[in-house]
Write a structure and sequence with these properties.
By secondary structure, this protein is α+β, with helices and mostly antiparallel strands. Helices cover 21% and strands 33% of the residues. Strands 3-2-1-4-5 form a 5-stranded antiparallel sheet, with no helix packed on it. It starts with a helix and ends with a strand.
């Protein structure tokens, strides 16, 4: 013999089961999503190989494409904050010593800086990609001589 309370419990479980199954069937399947577009790095311009190119008429659109600067390559950089001290100066380029790490970097010198000047700086080092030179970013002067 079945009690009336048992009948209500069974119907409640049946409704809960149906709602759960209906919710699972309403979500989109992963197969219906469009595939992700692959990211390709920008190719760096190649050196001419020395072979003569086939003669082609020069159009204005080709000339404008050649004059525009190449798109910078995608690189990942590590950044280290520190102090850069100017060791030597030759016209606009100086030899900087970066602390921490005692790294020697060649970078453009601000107009007011002389040997011994110190700047708060960020040293960026390439982690991957086609970039291979460190970059020094001078933030603010600490000591200007």
């Amino acid at each position: 013999m079945m009690w009336p309370a048992d009948h209500r419990a069974n119907s409640g479980l049946l409704i809960l089961l149906l709602l759960t199954l209906a919710g699972c069937s309403s979500t989109p399947s992963p197969e219906s999503l469009p595939p992700a577009r692959p990211v390709t790095p920008t190719p760096t311009p190649e050196e001419p190989s020395g072979q003569p190119e086939a003669a082609s008429p020069s159009t204005p659109s080709n000339q404008t494409q050649q004059k525009t600067a190449p798109t910078p390559a995608l690189c990942a950089w590590s950044k280290t904050r520190g102090v850069a001290s100017l060791l030597a100066r030759e016209e606009d380029i100086g030899t900087w010593q970066f602390f921490p790490g005692d790294d020697i970097v060649h970078h453009k010198v601000p107009d007011k800086a002389d040997q011994g000047s110190e700047y708060r700086a960020i040293l960026e080092r390439p982690l991957n990609g086609p970039c291979d030179q460190e970059r020094l970013i001078l933030v603010a002067p600490v000591i200007v001589r």
